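ok so for the tutorial part 2 we go from a plain amino acid sequence to predicted structure tokens. step 1 is just haveing the sequence, like this:
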Amino acid sequence: MVFKKILTKVVNWILKNVELEELRVYNLKVGNSTVYVKSDRITLAALSSDPTSLTQGDMWFNSTDGKIKFTPDGTAVKVLPPAPITTDDIADGAITTAKIADSAVTEAKIANGAVTTAKIADGAVTDAKITGPISPSKIGQGDLNLGSGKLTCGQVQVGDISMRYGWKIIETPKALIVLKDGRKVFEIPA
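step 2 — the prediction. this is what the tokens look like for a chain of 190 residues:
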């Protein structure tokens, strides 16, 4: 035991402030034999919890949660993710639009039916994104406001038509009746 202490002091004295280009050691044990530097890997000590005092650049293995962790600044604790990263490794809401590169999400990456009405912001679908005819079932019941535009179609099928200034057109099997303020103005027989 005394010889080991003397030998340790001599080696520390010899290697103090020495820079080596190469040091060949079969199995280097560091820090009370808790970290091993081997020819093909580094074995970190298995800690049951994260260290309480951190220094920038510290790295350790937490055996309780099975993760390798490090601190880039001496305060924040980061986890080395496994490779490849799976959806289980990403917290909900962790990926924001700022972290997604432009044009990174392609059509192939979006599952069929994945984009629902709730996921589309109000007013987000522009005229340029709508092509082809829109079926009546997609318009629904209610006002169709064309603004200053014009409606062009092959055929329009409607029920009774009420107009802004009290005019109304009623269709019956035998006639087309035009009313103004509820009074019949004229009738066109079938």
